[in-house]
Structure formats: structure tokens, C-alpha cells
Amino acid sequence: xxxxxxxxxxxxxxxxxxxxxxxxxxxxxxxxxxxxxxxxxxxxxxxxxxxxxxxxxxxxxxxxxxxxxxxxxxxxxxxxxxxxxxxxxxxxxxxxxxxxxxxxxxxxxxxxxxxxxxxxxxxxxxxxxxxxxxxxxxxxxxxxxxxxxxxxxxxxxxxxxxxxxxxxxxxxxxxxxxxxxxxxxxxxxxxxxxxxxxxxxxxxxxxxxxxxxxxxxxxxxxxxxxxxxxxxxxxxxxxxxxxxxxxxxxxxxxxxxxxxxxxxxxxxxx
Length: 270
Known about the structure:
Blueprint: E1 17-21, H1 26-37, E2 41-46, H2 49-63, E3 67-71, H3 79-89, E4 94-99, H4 114-142, E5 145-150, H5 163-182, E6 188-193, H6 202-206, H7 221-232, E7 237-238, H8 242-249, H9 256-267
Parallel strand pairs: 1-2, 1-4, 2-3, 4-5, 5-6, 6-7
Helix pairs in contact: 1-2, 3-4, 4-5
């Protein structure tokens, strides 16, 4: 089976599971609802047990699919291994990993506690890498599987006021690009989705006032649509909106410092 032949909605995939992190809200929840609507069985991962249980029951009732709920705090370095053990114990074969979980903290770097900085790095980078490494071998053995990593436009340059967050998303983009090529002939599709500002509720949790942002906020649906399309079409990275693409493309015509200053202006953190 060739790399480009992976389709998360092919007949054999309906026997397996899509695992989604950050599934209790925002982009993760949107992916869960879309895949449930299309008949895919799910493993939902997030910290919020109550929200996961409510969502799982709703999706079972509406779509008649199987939904496993795996509460986990991805800030715990042992969580990825426990998630894998959870799936093995329940004999849930995962052929699609959707890494949506992510944290941010708005403000000057020197004002953010070291504990929060560590948490952002562990959740945004280490958890994503470990989950990918743990679930990947079985996908390779089957020569069939997919990975969607949710990155950000912030990963294409530093963003003043969101310095560490933008650095972690740059990591996600570069890591995804390398995996995409490494796994090209092994039947595994890997894509980075790079959205701009999405209305997910993350702004309130990160201390970022969304009312100050100088770019339009889009709904989570555009991210889900782009991610699925990119996966099926074997893209290295995809942009959910034309504006996202234009903003990245336009960086070719300005200096790096100007691109960074513009990113800070549009995000309006400080």
C-alpha cells in the first residue's frame, strides 16, 4: 500500500479507532464530532473527565459508534504510555492519531513562571512526540495509518508576547515535515495543520484578550476540514483559510524582524 492511499474513511478503518487529544473542547472536540458523524470509532483524551464522558455519550447516541474515554493529563510524562496501555487493554487498534492538545500563556517571557513554561513545553512537544513514537510502530506494521498534528501560524516566526508558544508550534511543524518524508513509503500520512486565530476558548485560559486581536477569528470547522483534506491528499502542511496562507506567503517579501513585529501587532498580546 502506498503512502497516498491512506484514507481515514476507507472500509477497513471503520474497524479501528481515531485517538484525539484535547478532545473535551475546541479543535479536539470538533474533530471528534466530525469523525463520529462519519462513523469512526474514537478514543477521547483530555484532562476533563466530566466533559469527556458527556461528549462520549452524546456521540454514541447520535452516531452509534464506539467511544472510549481516557482521562489523562499530558503534562505528566508518563501519560502517553498509560494512554497506549489503556488502548491495548481495551483492544482498540488506533490507526489515526490527532494531536490537538496544546497550552499557551500570553505575556512577557520573564513574567511567566518556570512551572508554566515547563508545562507548555511538555504538553505541546513532548506529549505529541511520545504519543507518535508509541503508536507509530503498529501503523508501520499494518502499512496504514495517519497522524494530524495541530500547529499554528505562530510557528512560522516568533510572536512577541507568545514566544514559547510560537517556538513549540515551530517544533511541531518541523517535526511533522520530517516525519512526512520519513514515512512516505510506509503507508503513513502525516500532516501539520497551521491555523491562525481560532475561536476555541484558549484565549481566556492563556490570559490573551481575544478582543484585542487584529485578525478575524475563525471557527474550529475550518481546521477540521483542512486537516482531513490534507491527510487524504498527502500534504505536508495545510492552511485552513486563504488568509492563513497569504500571511505566511507574504513573509517572503519582508525581513525576518518585520515578520516578527507584524506577528506581534496582529496578535496584540502586549
